[in-house]
Amino acid sequence: MLTRTIVSIGAIALTACAATASNAQDNDASFAAGYGSHGRHVKVMIISMFAPEGQVWLDHLGPWESIPVAGLSPDYPDVHCNKQDICVMTTGMGHANAAASTMALTFSPRFDLRHTYFLIAGIAGIDPAQGTIGSAAWSKYLVDFGIQWELDGREIPAGWNTGYLGINTTNPNQKPPLDYKTEVFQLNAKLTDAAYALSRNAVLTDSAQAQAARAKFSYAPANQPPAVIQCDTLAGDTWFSGTDIGQRARDWTKILTDGKGTYCTTQQEDNATFEALTRAANAHRVDLSRVADLRTGSDFDRPYAGQTSADNLLNYQAQGGFVPAVQNLFAAGNPLVQEIATHWGEWRDGVPQR
């Protein structure tokens, strides 16, 4: 009896699984029938990392259709698309969430992303030597700060200025062999230049609190109003604050880009997101030449003169940069998004000559 019961339960379970699989296939088939054999066509996919970054787009460009995608973060299970074929997804914060959600998106049968432009758009810490809170930075290089060896800073060898060094190197100034293949990525400079040209005169949001925080710096551009700029971004799941570690961020960017890149923003996700897109590109599901990266400064990565690094980190919210940074994702990013969506005939086959 027990055996028969188990068999019966197994049969019921298999029937249920078959029904579930059939329903899923039916759903995918009906979706594909509505949007083409490869899924819904998307002109621009905006990739945000947490709710406020995505919400600023949802507030401005609706109405939206919510499309559930298997494998996305349970906190953000839907991709939102509008009638312009502009879509917004939110990955969840950090390397792991960014990679997992981006992979789920790009391998979903619900979308045809072969001609899609991707805009990675999020807030970040910013180097006061390159920008200020509220500034919007378009990047040509994505550099991973986390893939390094680290010695305790209290025990570094004589003559070294940092405890960080590339993996399988012998001093902090050597370029590592890039065995991970995700340490540095170069984006399509033509697309980055186009994005900058379209947005360079955008009117950016500011706040009195951010202005007061900037005024504590004695030099530009830290103490100037926010602007749209071009410089590069550094990814690492560990937040940092400090002049010395900030200098390592500058140096590491120069090392990995052979002197071509300039560090200015620090965030957690972008190398992971781009590697997931790379896997999809290898499967002919996306085009890596259509990826743009925009980061807006929400707080300084190092203290002003007389401030401690601990105070800069622990009280980062007092800088007042969060709201301007979120708002400026849309202010600086939307000119590119609208240019692509409204002039699709010029952009479908690649970045147009201008």
Tell me about this structure.
Keywords: Signal. Residues 1-24 form the signal peptide. The chain is of the alpha/beta class and 354 residues long. The chain has a single domain, classed as Nucleoside phosphorylase domain (Rossmann fold). Helices cover 38% and strands 19% of the residues. The protein contains ten helices and 16 strands. Strands 2, 3, 4, 5, 7, 8, 9, 12, 13, 14, 15 and 16 form a twelve-stranded mixed β-sheet that branches. A two-stranded parallel ribbon has the order 1-6. The protein has a two-stranded antiparallel sheet with strand order 10-11. The radius of gyration is 23 Å and the shape is globular. The relative contact order is 0.18. Residues 1-35 have low confidence and may be disordered.
